[in-house]
């Protein structure tokens, strides 16, 4: 009898309503075997359809290894709902079945928790009386101070734990930025609030925990900074990435960096302001920083000069003018182009200054922390100055990372970095932003996680496109792991008996005759929707969704909620459930948000209508660059990118219908390309084995 089998027997004994499914045990055994492999081979990639019970499967497959090897089991998800389900339901139930209960905790980024020191400063600092402050700013300042005082009172008197997500009232984003901090702006043990600090309370809990629940963004941020800042070092972690199909896209967002002009001008001004305070603040060690001050007094004006030079070059370019005049959005710029060639020298000069400033402000931060520890510096002074020094350090460190991407020459044998420009609003002003990022997150994920972690499990209900792991494998940097590391678990559902797939006879094609197809969709919805039941209608375009809604009769619109109207998706689901539970019909018109992750079991969803095949629209510069790279290497973007992506999205959308083995209902797809196009037949062949009905 294996350890996994023993665990499942314990779970069945402790939970009378639970019976382990064969697919669940298969997944668990596969993961346990993978975790027993040699270092850098402990990787398991598992596609587990809805109904398998993958949470218990990966918990039973990993917990023994984590406990025996004294590694932290870190479970990462993409959604808050799944994190809460793990903390409030799954982990307590699982823990109760073990010989010794496990300790678990949910961890978020430092910015999700209030910094008591900064909150105290905002709440107790007298309001500025400057003549430069306009009426609106003055009013905003009064509001911020009042709310900060309330937050401080609630936290101090233990009516609030300091977690932003546990507040019922809305906290203004600008205020929250002022009262939270990052690692560079934190005084740590030297802070007068250290023992009561919400973040450090969490860190102490995490040190004692055997299981940590986090999200993809936190793990990727930690990995981007080298690992070990928020979580333990990757070498001490056994990772489980649930909802892993989201990981490549999120990793790309973290790997890309940007140069924001207004942010850099403001940070340079902050750096200069800090510099003026240093001689008096650190007077006790002035013999150490004479050279530093002279270098910074040279470097900070030079940064301003380089930024202005870069802006001037950009503004003189025709493509940038088109961007500013809103003729185009996010234009790419290319290595060896005249624009990039003109930018190289000022960018190299800016990088040189950034390295110097980052180095010196890192030393200043270290000295301030030491001054606080040795009580050479008053707490009030040190805690007020440290966040400003930390901000300078952070932004210039980020600028260095951006330059590493922007200035890296293209190489023929590997995908080049992608460079592009956008116009964004920052601090209530419009600014040019220059972006640079890798075309694929594969190298980032492999270097920072797969090559370092003790073990890794990646799982989701949909990881394969057209029945293959190929696209996910490439995007995640898993190319060195062979098929022994990949498993597709069969579904426990009897699709033939539980669901019908209906593809009505449609005259028009959505991609060629959109207006006629749109009107035809309205007619079909009138024919196929039963207004007494629970229906989910999925669209790929907001404009089409709203146009269809306007043309539907009152019998349908009276019970329909449209995504993007007054209610949030979460509140739409709550209202939908109330409608159905009260014995009435309810219809949701939704976009991507409803095609993935929405859980409406049983009678809460008995009909899913997919209006159009959910082909991805590749508009982002990195996606366009990836298409060009595939063509350059002799491939076809449609086959390599679009088809696997639409296959995954279609399976996810259809998956909204059956959530449990007792569910039943019907799926209708209003896109005849499934039957008339060769690729449509491929997509149809890789859907679950629903009972197919054709008009």
How would you characterize this protein structure?
This protein has 695 residues and is α/β, with parallel strands linked by helices. Helices cover 50% and strands 13% of the residues. The protein has 27 helices and 18 strands. The strands form three sheets. It has a seven-stranded parallel beta sheet with strand order 3-4-2-5-10-1-11, sandwiched between helices. Strand 8 (418-426) and strand 9 form a beta hairpin. The longest helix has 36 residues, at 338-373. The radius of gyration is 28 Å and the shape is globular. It is an enzyme of class 5 (isomerase). Its cofactor is [4Fe-4S] cluster.
How much of the polypeptide forms β-strand, as a percent range? 5-15%
Rounded to the nearest angstrom, the radius of gyration is: 28 Å
Distance between the termini: 52 Å
Strand order of the largest sheet: 3-4-2-5-10-1-11
Q: Outline the low-pLDDT stretches.
A: none
Structural class: alpha/beta
Shape: globular
Looking at the chains present, what oligomeric state does this protein adopt? single chain
Largest sheet: 7 strands, parallel
Please provide the count of β strands. 18
Overall pLDDT metric: 92
| Helical residues, percent | 40-55%
Query: Tally the helices: what do you get?
Result: 27
Pfam families: DEAD, DEAD_2, Helicase_C_2
Organism: Methylophaga thalassica
Protein name: ATP-dependent DNA helicase DinG
EC number: 5.6.2.3
């Amino acid at each position: 009898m294996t350890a996994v089998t023993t665990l499942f027997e314990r779970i069945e004994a402790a939970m009378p309503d639970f019976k382990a499914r064969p697919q669940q045990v298969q997944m668990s055994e596969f993961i346990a075997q993978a975790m027993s492999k040699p270092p850098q081979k402990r990787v398991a990639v598992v596609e587990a359809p809805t109904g398998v019970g993958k949470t218990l499967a990966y918990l039973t497959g990993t917990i023994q290894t984590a406990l025996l090897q004294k590694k932290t089991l870190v479970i990462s998800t993409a959604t808050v709902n799944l994190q809460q389900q793990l903390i409030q339901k799954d982990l307590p139930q699982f823990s109760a079945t073990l010989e010794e209960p496990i300790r678990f905790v949910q961890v978020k980024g430092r910015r999700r928790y209030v910094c008591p020191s900064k909150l105290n400063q905002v709440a107790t600092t007298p309001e500025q009386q400057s003549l430069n402050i306009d009426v609106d700013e003055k009013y905003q300042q009064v509001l911020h101070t009042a709310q900060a005082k309330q937050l401080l009172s609630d936290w101090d008197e233990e009516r609030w734990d300091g977690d932003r997500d546990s507040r019922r009232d809305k906290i203004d984003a600008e205020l929250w930025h002022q009262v939270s901090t990052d690692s560079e702006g934190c005084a740590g043990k030297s802070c007068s609030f250290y023992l009561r600090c919400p973040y450090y309370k969490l860190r102490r809990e995490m040190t004692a925990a055997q299981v940590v629940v986090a999200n993809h963004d936190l793990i990727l941020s930690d990995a981007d900074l080298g690992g070990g800042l928020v979580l333990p070092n990757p070498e001490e972690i056994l990772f489980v990435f649930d909802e892993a199909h989201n990981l490549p896209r999120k990793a790309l967002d973290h790997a890309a960096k940007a140069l924001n002009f207004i942010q850099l001008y403001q940070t340079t001004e902050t750096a200069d302001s800090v510099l003026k305070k240093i001689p008096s603040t650190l007077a006790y060690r002035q013999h150490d920083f004479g050279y530093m001050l002279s270098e910074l007094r040279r470097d900070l004006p030079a940064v301003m000069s380089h930024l202005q030079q870069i802006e001037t070059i950009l503004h003189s370019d025709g493509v940038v003018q088109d961007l500013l005049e809103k003729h185009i959005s996010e234009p790419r710029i290319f290595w060896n182009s005249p624009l990039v060639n003109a930018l190289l020298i000022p960018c190299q000069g800016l990088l040189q200054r950034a390295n110097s400033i980052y180095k010196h402000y890192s030393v200043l931060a270290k000295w301030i922390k030491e001054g606080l520890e040795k009580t050479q510096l008053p707490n009030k002074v040190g805690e007020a100055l440290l966040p400003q020094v930390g901000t300078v350090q952070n932004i210039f460190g980020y600028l260095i990372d951006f330059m590493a991407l922007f200035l890296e020459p293209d190489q023929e044998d590997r995908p080049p970095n992608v460079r592009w420009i956008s116009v964004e609003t920052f601090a209530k002003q419009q600014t040019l932003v220059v972006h640079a990022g890798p075309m694929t997150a594969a190298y980032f994920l492999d270097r920072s996680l797969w090559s370092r972690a003790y073990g890794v499990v990646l799982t989701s209900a949909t990881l394969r496109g057209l029945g293959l792991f190929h696209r996910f494998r490439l995007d995640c940097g898993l190319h060195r792991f062979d098929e022994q590391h990949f498993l597709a678990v069969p579904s426990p559902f009897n699709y033939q008996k539980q669901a019908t797939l209906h593809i009505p006879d449609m005259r028009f094609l959505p991609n060629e005759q959109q207006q006629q197809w749109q009107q035809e969709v309205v007619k079909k919805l009138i024919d196929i929707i039963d207004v007494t039941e629970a229906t989910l209608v999925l669209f790929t375009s907001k404009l089409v969704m709203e146009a269809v809604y306007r043309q539907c009769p009152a019998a349908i619109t009276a019970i329909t909620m449209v995504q993007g109207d007054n209610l949030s998706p979460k509140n739409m689901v709550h209202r939908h459930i109330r409608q159905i539970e009260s014995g009435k019909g309810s219809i949701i018109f939704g976009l991507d948000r409803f095609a993935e992750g929405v859980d409406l079991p049983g009678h809460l969803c008995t009909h899913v209508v997919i209006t159009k095949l959910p082909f991805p629209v590749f508009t982002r510069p990195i996606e366009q660059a990836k298409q060009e790279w595939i063509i350059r290497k002799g491939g076809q973007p449609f086959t390599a990118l679009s088809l696997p992506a639409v296959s995954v999205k279609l399976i996810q959308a259809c998956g909204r219908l059956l959530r449990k083995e007792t569910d039943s209902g019907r799926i209708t797809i209003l896109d005849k390309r499934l039957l008339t196009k060769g690729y449509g037949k491929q997509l149809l062949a890789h859907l679950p084995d629903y009972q197919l009905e054709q008009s």
